[in-house]
Amino acid sequence: MRIPFERIRINGADSDSSSFISKKIPAVTLSGLSNEWQSILHTTFDVVKKVKPESVYLGYRLALTMWSRIEEAPCESFR
């Protein structure tokens, strides 16, 4: 899909997928955070104009594509 991808770790934070992972249920968290997240998240710079609509759309496309492939695969594929 040629969508830029990076892994980031948000120290001291948690996501909804953690409760699944702790029960050994495969899970993934999609986020639109950039490497600049620490200087933006929960600061005065954390404003709507920082949201890039193209990035939201790409995340939506990625999630739909992932979901369709997961739906088509046998359950044991993800264990």
Rounded Rg:
15 Å
The helix/strand order is: HHH
Could you give a short account of the major beta sheet?
none
Mean pLDDT value: 84
Number of strands: 0
Low-confidence stretches: none
Helix fraction by DSSP (H/I, runs of at least 4) = 25-40%
Instruction: State the end-to-end distance.
Output: 25 Å
* C-alpha geometry: flat
**What class, by secondary structure content?**
mainly alpha
Q: Helix tally?
A: 3
- Fraction of residues in β-strands: under 5%
Describe this structure in words.
The protein starts with 16 loop residues before the first helix and ends in a 7-residue tail after the last helix. It is built from 3 helices and no strands. It is mostly helical and 79 residues long. The chain has a domain of 42 residues. The longest helix is centred in the C-terminal third of the chain and has 20 residues.
What order do the helices and strands come in, and which of them pair?
Elements (H helix, E strand, L loop, with lengths): L16 H6 L14 H4 L12 H20 L7
Key words describing this protein structure:
79 residues, 0% strand
Describe this structure in a few short sentences.
With 79 residues, this protein is mainly α. It is built from three helices and no strands.
